[in-house]
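Hi W., the 5-phosphoarabinonic acid complex you wanted:
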Amino acid sequence: MNAVALWQRYQDWLYYHDGLEVYLDVSRMRFDDRFVEQMQPKFEKAFQDMAALEGGAIANPDEHRMVGHYWLRDPDLAPNEDLKQDIIQTIQDIESFTRKIHLGEIRPPQAEKFTDILSIGIGGSALGPQFVSQALAASPPMAIHFFDNTDPAGFDRVLSGLGDRLRSTLVLVISKSGGTPEPRNGMLEAQRAYQQQGLDFGRHAVAVTGYGSELDKLAKSQGWLTTFPMHDWVGGRTSELSAVGLLPAALQGTDIQAMLSGAKEMDVATRVPKIKENPAALLALSWYFAGNGKGEKDMVVLPYKDSLLLFSRYLQQLVMESLGKEKDLDGNVVHQGIAVYGNKGTTDQHAYVQQLREGVPNFFLTFIEVLHDRQGTSVASAIEVEPGVTSGDYLSGLLQGTRKAIYDNDRDSITVTIPEVTPRHVGALIALYERAVGLYGFLVNVNAYHQPGVEAGKKAAAVILELQRNVIQALKQESRPITIDALATKAGAPDEAEAVYKIIRHLAANDRGVKLHGSAGQPGRLTVSL
Ligand code: PA5
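Structure:
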């Protein structure tokens, strides 16, 4: 297609949201109106399913739960008055708590004010807050730090960065289930660090969790500062606009009402039951086209703005945990999903874009473009890096150039353009992708709101830790070094010698009282003693 025809195609396949000034350009996906017509029946059903979901249907059948993240930004949509009041009250509580923290009305026992936040959570209880913090909190009133794993070295790095400021650090423990091991471990490690500095952890701690969870009970029994609810009808990866994301954002000085209103405006647009008039439907259509409805191509997300760096990682979870499913809603094995990866432009042009342009064509790109180069007054003071050209012109030119170069080499792309990175536009982006994922889930008939694979991983880890306890028990009864195979048998797991070996090697590497004898290169011949 020549440049003139492409210009026409751009105009034909451009969606523009007037209020939000958001553009969605799907002109570089090579579908046509026939494809839209072909997809029409599937979309009609998806729109109906989505309306039922918003109306309070049990849209997450495996967990027998409603799916209500849309109500968070428009409580009038909640299916009953109690839920509506709960949502409104939670937002008011977050705002009032934040005000008191910022004014020092709620203060740590040994400092004037809280200066820092330590946010402890994983998956949906971390990625949204991390993304939003990086996108919006350029100079926050309180600096935020994250425990988003169970890596002891990671804990130590954050804690040593905080040093004495632990005395003025507010801890948010975020876990919907209140029983996920990683945040539980993070909380225990943080608790110990407070004790070591002679600080009362409870006077620094806040829980965001489901009503009645273990964490909820602990927070109440230990007299923590307060708790905020995480409703069972909000999934982890769609929880950024619940207390999970709003509390850390508000504490960092982000306008959470603007985030909510941006999301609400986008929700109105993505509720329209017409493919070409609905930006989320256009995204879902594009994904379906690219991967033949089977995820045959990966989604590479490239935000051309440093502050949106974590958007790719946030979307990776939102898309892959939602859509990556073995079975469809009727129980058929389908192995669905779309692989998502990305970092940021133009950095990635000096990394893997070489392969995207010339290598295996197993992907489609999503460019995220931001029109304003700089926030605030510095716009006027932009220097020219070459006559008539600024750094921002380069960023824009490199985006356009990459889009063209990959299209010319038969690679498709989508471009989402926002005017600037504001709370309102971040809210809108979150809402756009939440809806696109939901619609795509309905198109391919999978439950986008459960995560059985994650549960399977948690169970498998619990089995290994139980084996570790049995192995140590068995070893205590040995007076002489014993082989790994013999130890596995004595621990009641004769077929698990490899797992036993890895447990022992890890214990030995960490001076946990276990010794390995022999050559590390021949694990089958090693012997073990205490
Ligand atoms: O999206 C999800 O549901 C998951 O990623 C969860 O957020 C994650 O497993 C953490 O769960 P929880 O908040 O219960 O600790």
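Residues 122-125, 175-177, 180, 183, 235-237, 321, 451, 454 surround 5-phosphoarabinonic acid (CB under 6 Å).

W.
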